[in-house]
Write the structure tokens for this entry.
Amino acid sequence: MAPAKPLGLTPTAGWQGPGARGPKRGFTWNRVLWALVFPQRGQRILPTLSGTLLIALSVGIGMAAYNSANNILFITLSLLLACLVLSGVLSWLNFRGVAWRLEIAPPLRAGHEAVVGLGLRNRKAFLPTYGLWFELLARQVEEGPPPESTITGKGIDLREEWKKSGQNETRGRLFLRERLEPRGETRLDWLFQPAKRGRLRVELAGIGSQFPFGFLKKLLTTELRAELMVWPAPVEYRRLAEAGARRTAGGERTSRTGSGGDLLALRRYASGDSHRLIHWKASARSRQLLVRQFAAESTEGFTLWLRTEAEVWTRPEQFELLVSFGATLAEDLFRAGQLIAAAIDDEPPVPIRRVNDLEALLDRLALVKVRAETNGRESRGEGVPSPANNRKNLLTFAPDGARGVAAYVDGEKTATA
């Protein structure tokens, strides 16, 4: 399970749309007519099937009216053209004063249902808004060089490329089924499942409406998007033995922070600290929130070390299980207060003290890939230099058969996934 998060959806982008602009300028018919004749960039108006039939009928009646000079046909033609013009004006008024923004509640987990909220606001003073639909798109952001263009690339199968791009995209459509009152706000929710870990881009691809008569379809393109991190999916694992941390003689304590009983120091409150650690008397004296830091026993906790050599992890599905297993163990150990530090490959161990440190580790695990390169010492056969030299309770991973992954503490097998 993920660390505790505040409930509710978090806005990931500011308000955008016609209703998100600054103070309104004074009303002038000049500006209204100019907006009707020359719409803003990114706006399109297309006739629907019924609108196409209405246009064709208007052309036929117009030709008959000019040929016969019949006043009734001219009146009918004027009524049909007035319906088209009125439809466009009402559609323009329907969009006017409307703003939208994305609201997403992190964290996102691969294979788990995520909620994307679309906040709507109507700034019009008298007119409500009806019948909008919103096209949402969630696209996996691939790391590395951009793909080769289908125009300049050689030997590219267009169907295969389109199929690959479709596999990394998830599309959805939300409908505003009830009217949005003047000066009112509402929110629409879109549920989807991220397919895999990594960086995910959620964007509002377009907005459309056939209000009021269904003769014309107005489409707007937006630049509203948000980039999020999808953490590895939690997995089930089985413990083979109790992997308790080994204690040194005498229950020795060190000066690093932890959950021991000896008070080490006072420091400023940081986001993610427990409210139980706040020292209220010292905070009142200094007029700022201060929290207690306790000394930790030198034998508590584990150091997690994740290695990603291509020679070891030859199967992609097994490597994905490794990343998910490592993320799950990191969360469980942190929740139990037994995670001291974590390292990936040959980087130095990073201390894990607060929720923010754990989230930073999960962000790195969301982007980790199989490492194909080897350094000079590996190529000379001198072995892999451990970033956690002389550390006890070192938690490492290795393949377990063709599909499984095993966790080892100081060389002793303790858990499998």
In short: The chain is about 25% helix and 30% strand. The longest strand covers residues 253-268. Residues 255 and 384 are 30 Å apart (CA to CA).
